[in-house]
Design a protein that fits this description.
Two copies of one chain form a homodimer.
Chain A: H1 2-11, E1 13-15, E2 19-21, E3 29-30, H2 32-45, E4 53-57, H3 62-72, E5 76-79, E6 91-98, E7 103-110, E8 119-127, H4 131-142, E9 146-156, H5 161-167, E10 172-182, E11 186-189
Parallel strand pairs in A: 4-5, 4-8, 8-9, 9-10
Antiparallel strand pairs in A: 1-2, 6-7, 10-11
Helix pairs in contact in A: 2-3
Chain lengths: 191, 191
């Protein structure tokens, strides 16, 4: 999506350690109109797929996932990273390594919120090694639901997670794919 | 908002310790169309107020905050509960006690995302003792911005946070106000 690439080029800050800061419109301060445009793009990329729910993991995928789910007219389910007192009953869980935070966490979804008849689109802001997607895919599998695909805002192809999933037959759509980046040279997109 | 009260009565589960579980439409699995309706109600309740940004804290306020901000045509800014590698530079921070999780955390917002000219609407899912709102109000104050008001989905009036803020002159609008609740008797709303 050209508009997203332009925005990343203009506003993104590449930090040490393969970290791309997009706080001005994608993470901390969310450009809501632009997020809605990105969601429309996702809806057209997955046209024809049966999608009954959108699944993400808290918290930076929630706004994007919400915008997609609203346009599709389906619920957004989000996995939690910690157990809260307002969760009760059976949970579906998967251990995920966070590249951004440098730690492991257990993502959980109440078992009643995903079921065998569901066809689930995973939405997330970043795709790097694919750890979060694999965790969410495991949760979908535990629910006995099926995976419609993965919608990503920014993929870092040099961390290989996206292409591995595509080779495994998963329908992955990333609105911007970064082939390389560095603090000195900035960001280069897949042609 | 009558539709929200009905939904809470029908689907809410009151757990021990003043915990109300609304995972089926408001927290874990988010009814996106209904969230958009609630956001429209907020927009009409704050009609005439100047609002340049909506502020929430991750993660359960993000969907509601996003829906409001999108309708207002302004950015959604969310405070983070932990420091991530994609945050850099100056941050505005406030310590907040979480009633749901039973711990303290530091909420942070990148200093570049709120500024002195902003008039900020705070959005959150629950209002109980008001700890989270006070933390977000402190962040707005640190930014030199002004507070337009607080939009809440569910207020537990018996924990007093909402009425204390109203007495202090803050424009607080809660779409449902619960005067009492218990696992045995369920939920009673403010008449």
């Amino acid at each position: 999506m050209r508009a997203l690439e332009e925005r990343i080029t203009r506003e993104g800050k590449v930090l040490e350690g393969n970290v791309l800061k997009l706080g001005s419109f994608l993470n901390q301060s969310i450009d809501t109109a632009f997020t809605a445009e990105m969601a429309s793009e996702v809806v057209s990329l997955f046209a024809g797929e049966r999608i009954t729910k959108v699944l993400t993991v808290e918290s930076s995928g929630i706004a994007f996932g919400f915008a997609i789910a609203e346009k599709l007219g389906v619920p957004l389910v989000f996995a939690k990273k910690s157990h809260a007192s307002n969760q009760s009953g059976d949970v579906l869980s998967a251990k995920i390594h966070s590249y951004t935070h440098g730690n492991d966490y257990t993502a959980t979804v109440g078992a009643e919120y995903l079921s065998a008849g569901d066809s689930v689109l995973i939405a997330d802001d970043f795709l790097a090694t694919g750890e979060a997607l694999h965790g969410l895919m495991k949760i979908i599998e535990l629910a006995g639901a099926s995976l419609a695909g993965c919608a990503i805002q920014v993929e870092k192809s040099f961390q290989n997670g996206g292409d591995e999933l595509r080779r495994a037959g998963v329908h992955v759509e990333s609105l911007a794919i970064i082939d390389s980046m560095s603090p000195e040279e900035g960001v280069r997109f897949r042609p």
